[in-house]
UniProtKB/TrEMBL annotation:
Protein name: Glucan endo-1,3-beta-D-glucosidase
Membrane-spanning ranges: none
GO molecular function, one term: hydrolase activity, hydrolyzing O-glycosyl compounds
Organism: Coffea canephora (Robusta coffee)
Alphabetical GO biological process terms: carbohydrate metabolic process
């Protein structure tokens, strides 16, 4: 069993599983999506990423901003986008005029050709120490939602925010098998008598239970980030390609089975995998730069482990680089990796 200190290291490695809680009624199609971060200087151009994901039928993408280059590159792609309003914008978004202007500049011009279905207002605000930012979060969400209403867009785009499961606290002990979806006896909830064989499902149901205790039973929980790093600093002993492949591979297999949690077995888990690419300019420990399923050249960091029939294997389009203009061919191992994702959508 891992100690509490080890668990804290694990939680840092998996980004604390940010969860989405809806402010307004709106449901995205279930399945798997991908987080597309861009804190790097060696990534393919957005147009090439659009071509890549389009060819593989990846239909849900989450951004951390509202990058116009990305939104334009995905025109007519039939990809659902979650876009982000950063914490630095929360105070401004409490002003109705500024909120409406932001939507008119960053959302409305793209809606005719790019499917923007959700705006995340703020990111992991409640686990920070900025009390002023916390006080701005709900008013900012409400103001952005009102602006969407005023512009006639509230049925097309809904508003949410992302919370770290760090707000739930930490269990004293947890096994690596329990975290990686590997065979284990599980942990029985003493209140509900339900048995949990993995940590993610227990965390999701803990959020549902907390909301129910507060009288909220009509809010859907979505996992906006979950993943595992393939590399870390010397003290990040769990950050290995083997563990990353186990975590993401086992997670995708459960999504393929349309599994729900023990408390909500009829509601399949809704997940955005973190992340598409390794990002070499991200600050913090080495693990932060190594969550990607892919290297910037498009090759897989590790194999997910889902097998496809031979006739489904093939080559992907050439990928160029916005910084260098170089081209590389991405071979069938990468095709296996992301087509596996596509088949789960």
């Amino acid at each position: 069993m891992a100690s509490l200190r080890s668990l804290n290291r694990f939680r840092a490695l998996v980004l604390l599983f940010s969860l989405l809680s809806d402010l307004s009624v709106g449901v995205l199609s279930l399945g798997v999506g991908i987080n597309y971060g861009q804190i790097a200087n060696n990534l393919p151009s957005p147009s090439r990423v659009a071509l890549l994901l389009r060819s593989l039928n990846i239909s849900r993408v989450k951004l951390y901003d509202a990058d116009p280059n990305v939104l334009s590159a995905f025109s007519n792609s039939n990809v659902d986008f979650v876009i982000g309003l950063g914490n630095e914008n929360l105070q401004a978004m409490t002003d109705p005029g500024q909120a409406q202007t932001w939507i008119q500049q960053h959302v409305q011009p793209y809606l005719s050709q790019t499917k923007i279905t959700c705006i995340t207002v703020g990111n992991e605000v409640l686990t920070g120490n900025d009390t002023q930012m916390k006080s701005h979060l709900l008013p900012a969400m409400q103001t952005v939602n009102n602006a969407l209403n005023n512009l006639g867009l509230s049925r097309e785009v809904y508003v949410t925010t992302a919370h770290s499961t760090g707000i739930l606290g930490s269990p004293d002990q947890v096994s690596l098998e329990y975290v990686l979806f590997q065979p284990n006896p599980g942990i029985r909830d003493p209140v509900t008598n339900l048995n949990y064989d993995n940590m993610l499902y227990a965390q999701i149901d803990a959020v549902y239970s907390a909301m129910k205790a507060l009288g909220h039973t009509d809010v859907q929980v979505k996992i906006s980030e979950t993943g595992w790093p393939s590399k870390g600093d010397p003290d990040e002993v769990g950050a290995t390609p083997e563990n990353a492949a186990l975590y993401n591979g086992n997670l995708l297999q459960r999504i393929e089975q349309n599994q729900g949690t023990p408390a909500n077995p009829s509601i399949p888990i809704d997940v955005y995998v973190f992340a598409l690419f390794n990002e070499d300019l991200k600050p913090g420990p080495a693990s932060e730069r190594n969550y990607g399923l892919l290297y910037p050249d498009g090759s897989p960091v590790y194999r997910i482990g889902l097998q496809l029939q031979e006739q489904q294997q093939g080559y992907l389009p050439h990928i160029d680089y916005s910084s260098s203009g170089q081209q590389k061919t991405v071979y069938s191992s990468f095709s296996l990796l992301l087509i596996a994702l596509a088949f789960l959508i």
